[in-house]
Amino acid sequence: MALQVRALDNVGVEVSGFDITKPLGAALAAELVSLWNEHGILVFRGQDVNPHNQIAFSRVFGELEMHPLAATTSAEYPELFTLVNKPETEKYMTARYNGREIVSKLDWHMDLHYTGKPNRGALLRAVICASEDGLTGFGDLAKAYDALDEATRELLARIEVTYAFSMQRRHMRFVNLEGYEPGPYSPKKPSDLNFPSFPEVAYPAVVTHPVTGRKVLEICEQFLERIVAPHRAGLCNDEAVDLLQRLVEHTRKPEFHYFHQWQEGDMVLWDNWRAMHCTTGTKPGVERMIHRTTIMGDATLGRVVD
Ligand SMILES: [Fe+2]
CA 236, CA 286: separation in Å to the nearest integer? Predict the structure, then answer.
């Protein structure tokens, strides 16, 4: 059996030619890992997925992380994290965008990036698909780096950027706030959701991927705050803010994106040290369930600013 690989729109690949219900064997497993390292975003369709084989399949890519929030995991499968939209609780995740109510929309981000130690990757499987919308977007920040001009690359090699965790979207400096209004139940501070208060973290503007050695543009709009001491790179504060704005706009170019429209049984695996992701959300009243497994990483890419 050999794997078939098909390029997706712009970035990532769809991989077929194996059966998740059967043992993979060492050669296929190694091929899958190498495709993950090469492309960063892998899509699998039409597999007969259940919690048990999703967990076993995810382990091909590394040790799995248990989620710290016990409430979101099942006792039987602690490696499985359930993301669910249901009408009873959606009001906490609802906001208005240009007058329209949208549930669970999320800006471009990397998971646990605000801790300085993002997990290596994750695999999502659609259990209940939204009847409409509810797309998940993936953005390849290695390709975004490759597309930068030489002068920008040289400047970025001398710069650190910070991320500041905020519960309120309107406190985020680089997300698009035009037409945005928080919902009446939107959380106001981390403790509203029993989250700790995360300190600011700094990253090199370009991170070298610990496994593949590729350069990754470490810019994603969610929680992005500032350039550390911009004068050291010869920038005044206004130039520093303009540079971040320009870089965020660069990461928003569709040529670096793939948006996944979910069908039952689909799985998407991404490299969280290289690819950012976002969700388009749904209108209220739409049910949706995703099972997620998280691949641990033992690299610390950022540092806490003290
Ligand atoms: Fe996420």
Answer: 47
In terms of C-beta density within 10 A (0-12 exposed, 13-18 middle, 19 or more buried), how is residue 113 classed?
Answer: buried
Q: Residues within 5 Å of ion ligand 1 by Cβ?
A: 111
- From the CA of 72, how far away is ligand 1's center (Å)? 14
| Mean of per-residue pLDDT scores for the chain | 94
Q: Tens digits of per-residue pLDDT, 95-117?
A: 999 999 999 999 999 999 999 99
- Find the 299 Cα to ligand 1 centroid distance in Å: 18
Question: What is the Å distance from ligand 1's center to 278 Cα?
Answer: 7
Q: 151 alpha carbon to ligand 1 midpoint, in Å?
A: 32
What does CATH list as the number for 4-297? Answer: 3.60.130.10
Q: What's the pLDDT tens digit per position in 239-255?
A: 999 999 999 999 999 99
Domain residue limits, the chain: 4-297
Interval 71-97: pLDDT, tens: 566 678 889 998 888 888 899 999 999
